[in-house]
Amino acid sequence: MNRAHLSQLAVLATVAQCGSFRGAARELAIAPSAVSHAVSSLEARLGVRLLSRSTRSVAPTEEGAQLLERLRPALSEIDLALETAVEARDRPAGNLRLSVPRTAAHLVLTPRLGAFARAYPDIVLEIVIEDRFTDVVEGGFDAGVRLGESLQRDMIAVRIGPDIRGAVVGAPVYFEANPKPRHPRDLADHRCIRFRFSSGILYRWEFAKGGEEIEISAQGPLILDEDHLIAQAAADGAGLAFVFEDYVRAPLADGRLIRVLEDWCPSFDGFFVYYPSRRQMRPALRAFVDFFKVSG
């Protein structure tokens, strides 16, 4: 193999990931002209167009996409070899890119990010907020974080948070005008604050008790896509909310919110970090998993 191709292939992969020559130049800390020259030289040597360019974006051609698909594992192995060498010399280093749902970022990661950064100053941690389940390999991520019930069987999964539980809550002023629901079906007579996933799907409220499972398509005047906002709207009397109880511990404790249907909200598996079983774990990822995993 012509060794000059290796650096040009790395530039090509970065351009495809960033979607622009300027973005790749920033990522690689080189001039945009050097990025353009590397890609053009590679295309000239191979005799095939690898990127489709427009005034607004850059995207792989069909031939470029096929090349990148086969190239990605090799570049990942090179990154792993380099970072393993750094670890052997000193400590884990390099970029670590994770796909994380907003709730996990709030409840599990954010409280400990400062401590992680101090423990591993040579790791550049990038957290991409995505509520949908992501193929971490296809998305170019080192790993992802999801609820235990959402994990695929071909992934290695490590628990990084405790069991979690939902809570149906409303403000005292709301219950002054509305009776407290005693069964999930009573919610049909209530104004509920609904949650919409980034996929566009509205969350159906899930309940379980004594072996009986019920899903409710809640109705109400307000739809939000952020749990903090939903909890605040409930505290302001807008209606009933169904959120993870960690979001409402403080307002429940001081009386700003009242909990109902508690016996219909069992605990379930919390968040796990997951990554492909066929891929050797990078030193930076191992450091992350060991730092955040739940002991015992």
TrEMBL record:
InterPro entries: LysR-type_TF_proteobact-type (IPR058163), LysR_HTH_N (IPR000847), LysR_subst-bd (IPR005119), WH-like_DNA-bd_sf (IPR036388), WH_DNA-bd_sf (IPR036390). GO terms for biological process: DNA-templated transcription. The keyword Transcription applies. Residues 1-61 form the HTH lysR-type domain. Belongs to the LysR transcriptional regulatory family. CDD domains: PBP2_CrgA_like_5. This is DNA-binding transcriptional LysR family regulator. Keywords: DNA-binding, Transcription, Transcription regulation. SUPFAM superfamilies: Periplasmic binding protein-like II, Winged helix' DNA-binding domain. GO terms for molecular function: DNA-binding transcription factor activity; sequence-specific DNA binding. The keyword DNA-binding applies.
